[in-house]
């Protein structure tokens, strides 16, 4: 991993006549070049540093083959192969930059999410064109980053562009509609317009449920943000119910991963090679953004539960167990043990023996793990 070093990256350019170099972030005239990839330029050190911290460190070397001049290929077949290969790389860059941008949002690093979202938008335009529905996820990341930064007018512009594209695309998926309504809900909540926020989040949950199911982790975000709105309104009974629903969705998802990961391998019997069971359940892996979402959401619910008056022991035990499983999956064993111990203590006051036994069994697994 490269360390950001101003001495290494400062490189005033002597622009060749007729060549216009523009800043990666603001498109103003550029005077600084990244000396690691030599295909990326900036107007000043601040924008260079912001891009490096947001996304450039991750994609620096990958940009070289995408931005260098194409070699002369005499064969049409070779040119088509090269173009196909470049399109695959660009699509990979779209996925990588979007996932990174979403991860940064969940971590509360809104300023750093902007360069990643801009890169994803740039590659999406290159691959799909200016009017494609494929641009919407990038607009939504930019919109959510703007909300987090308190730039609500700018957020409205990004979300208006996303909404216009969705409206003119009849075949738009429920997954994209869900993300749009979620961002609109966040915007109204930031403006203090809570009833409008709840309506948008209800649409988010509807479309996400249609696409993924009611109890999918991709639907749980809508419940979580809706719970936050009810919490701000002082409607605690509804908020508490929704927080419990979010906890249950993540708990069941994480438990499934842990169960598969800790399952005892089937021993080979008899002579001959071991034949794998094709019906064996596969692990649902979390991508970087989902990991960050789980950390943010479950810790927020835990903080609320810990300070809640007249809390139910099973609610605290369940969220602690969920966090313990999450940190086990993230290979943070000390934190997994910390929340596991809290789950054990909380479950002692819980009449549900099944939860208590599950927590104790999981703690036995954790004790076998090396820190």
What would you note in describing this structure?
It comes from Tegillarca granosa. InterPro entries: TPR-like_helical_dom_sf, TPR_rpt, Zinc_finger_MYND_domain, Znf_MYND. Residues 23-60 form the MYND-type domain. TPR repeats lie at residues 178-211. Pfam families: zf-MYND. The chain has 371 residues and is mainly alpha-helical. Among the domains are: 1-65, no CATH class; 82-172, Alpha Horseshoe (Serine Threonine Protein Phosphatase 5, Tetratricopeptide repeat), CATH 1.25.40.10; 256-261 and 289-371. Helices cover 67% and strands 1% of the residues. It is built from 15 helices and 2 strands. The chain has helices spanning 6-9, 45-59, 63-67, 76-106, 110-128, 136-148, 152-167, 174-190, 194-212, 217-232, 236-261, 288-306, 313-329, 333-347, 353-367, and strands at residues 32-33, 41-42. Strands 1-2 form a two-stranded antiparallel ribbon. It is globular and about 75 Å long. The chain starts with 5 loop residues before the first helix and ends with a helix.
Helix proportion: 55-70%
Strand content: under 5%
Count of alpha/pi helices: 15
Query: What is the name of the CATH architecture of the domain at 82-172?
Result: Alpha Horseshoe
What about the largest sheet? 2 strands, antiparallel
**What is the CATH third-level topology name of the domain at 82-172?**
Serine Threonine Protein Phosphatase 5, Tetratricopeptide repeat
Sequence of strands across the biggest β-sheet = 1-2
Task: Catalogue the unreliable spans.
Answer: 1-18
Mean pLDDT: 88
* Termini gap: 24 Å
Principal-axes shape call: globular
Order of helices and strands: HEEHHHHHHHHHHHHHH
Identify the CATH class of the domain at 82-172.
Mainly Alpha
Number of strands: 2
Radius of gyration: 24 Å
- Structural class determined from secondary elements: mainly alpha
> Oligomerization state of this entry?
single chain
Q: What is the name of the CATH superfamily of the domain at 82-172?
A: Tetratricopeptide repeat domain
Organism: Tegillarca granosa
Keywords: Metal-binding, TPR repeat, Zinc, Zinc-finger
Domain MYND-type: 23-60
TPR repeats: 178-211
